[in-house]
Design brief:
29% of the residues lie in helices and 11% in strands. The protein is built from 6 helices and 8 strands. A hairpin with a 5-residue loop joins strand 4 and strand 5. The protein is globular and about 40 Å long. The chain has 221 residues and is α/β, with parallel strands linked by helices. The chain starts with 15 loop residues before the first helix and ends in a 6-residue tail after the last helix. The chain has a 6-stranded mixed sheet, with helices on both faces. Strands 2-6 form a two-stranded antiparallel sheet.
Length: 221
């Protein structure tokens, strides 16, 4: 499960440099740089944001349960940050306990999705937003985080229903953002630089999981 890191992942505001970049770039004859930079930053200006539909989910069939807004950062992915990775987590607890801590503003972390043992999928953060789940700001910005109910030392927690539902979820994410279905782009929390987590652990069957993701019709090759 993601560790506390709210301060490390605090919202980025438009600074004086961003607001003045058009004039600065023009002064050095770099109008194209100014245009591209401002195009990337336009949505951060006060009063400008991408339209949202309350309770909308990115995965058909998922149940929406909102995480505390202290545990994620508003964004406009993939327009501001490209998404090229899925990160697999294990909750180290029950589904209910994971939902509870992700709704706790004092926890400082949450993932986009939780997959229950019976295959039920709950979405708590929109994919376009940055969830604090990986313990690494750069990885948070470029990834979608999926928690799985259970414990890393209990292989029986990783049920057939869980694998199948999670594979469909990951396949859809990969298709949406043209993410290759391989172990360079679908990784465990343990593989994130700087993390002290071990999930999903030695009992998570990566060969089986990648095979299942690739079997989903919408998955990218």
């Amino acid at each position: 499960m993601g560790e506390k890191q709210a301060s490390a992942d605090g919202d980025r505001r438009i600074g004086r440099r961003a607001l003045l970049i058009g004039g600065t770039a023009a002064a050095v004859g770099s109008a194209v740089l100014a245009r591209d930079e401002l195009a990337r930053l336009w949505w951060r200006a006060p009063g400008v944001e991408k339209p949202r539909v309350q309770g909308a989910v990115d995965f058909r069939g998922a149940q929406w349960v909102a995480a505390s807004d202290a545990n994620w950062r508003r964004a406009d992915r993939p327009d501001d940050y490209g998404i090229d990775m899925v990160i697999i987590h294990v909750t180290q607890g029950s589904f209910a306990s994971a939902v509870k801590v992700f709704q706790d503003p004092g926890h400082g972390a949450a993932a986009h999705y939780i997959v229950r043992k019976d295959g039920h999928v709950t979405q708590m953060i929109r994919e376009l937003d940055v969830a604090y789940h990986a313990g690494n700001r750069a990885y948070n910005e470029r990834s979608v985080g999926i928690e799985h109910e259970g414990f890393v030392d209990r292989p029986e927690d990783f049920t057939d229903e869980m694998y199948a539902a999670s594979a469909r979820l990951t396949a859809g994410i990969c298709a949406r953002y043209a993410i290759p279905v391989d172990r360079e782009h679908i990784i465990g929390h343990v593989e994130v630089p700087g993390t002290d987590h071990t999930d999903p652990g030695e009992h998570w069957d990566w060969d089986r999981y990648i095979r299942l993701v690739r079997k989903v019709p919408s998955a990218s090759a």
